[in-house]
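**Discrete fold encoding**
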Amino acid sequence: MAYILQTTLTLGFVYALVALALFISYRILDIADLTTDGCYVLGMAVSVAFAYQGHPFLGIFLAIISGGLAGFVTAFLQTRLGVPSILAGIVTNTGLYTVNLMAMGWTSNIALLKKETLFTLFHNLGIGGNWSDFILVSCITLLSMLFVRWFLSTRLGLSIRATGDNRDMVRASSINPRFTITVGLVLANCFTGLCGALVGQMQKSADINAGTGIVVIGLACLIIGETIINGKKTITRNIVAVLIGNIVYRFIYAIILQTRILPIDFLKLITALIVALAIAAPTIKENAQLYNRARKEMK
């Protein structure tokens, strides 16, 4: 049970960075950014490739920059070339497949056998023992969450929030929505690249297909957290919901795997069901409230 808890918390914290990125793009900017899958693999590929060459810290830093560049391409397609947001993400995601292969040396996977990573270096410091991975990723994720909370309260952050609410109003206020959308998507994909970089070095490998479905899972975790945390929807609550949703999702996933209620071959089906229920949860909750209200009125 202790191992399940440790794994759940570690994965919940590290993958919260993807949900945090989707919170910026989907919730704040109201843009369905499908760059996430390819950007996640891009961060992983760059990070692992540089760690393989003996530069794990540089790999993390360049993975963040690479993610930001991917976000910039998507924003450029939307704001300058008039490509719809969903299609812009698909176009960028498609192009990233080749870019990711290039970053990985034209191989489909890289393994960091007997290579130093950010996690092995931190573990060698003797901090946390078996919990060293969790301590490292939790510190990085919490700092990222605090940064986003601070950034969204700045003047630029408020402009980005206003852009998601009403672009026409922002444009009338002499704020360029092209700029705010670009900054928002670049920031969001920086966090996606960071997540891929950390996961790659933590599991000591990178795979070209590692990002398949990551955007759907991240969105599901975001919605799970928002459903669990009731009350007035504030920026702070929503950012905390990002973390809570990921921990709950990973815990459900770990329990199913550990108890073996269903065969391992059902893993994709289980994931699809969890994601579908998470996305449908607000509607189910609302319909249940309407049904209960109707019953009381009939009585």
The first helix runs from residue 2 to 28. Residues 33 and 274 are 21 Å apart (CA to CA). The chain has a mean pLDDT of 89. Residues 2-211 form one domain.
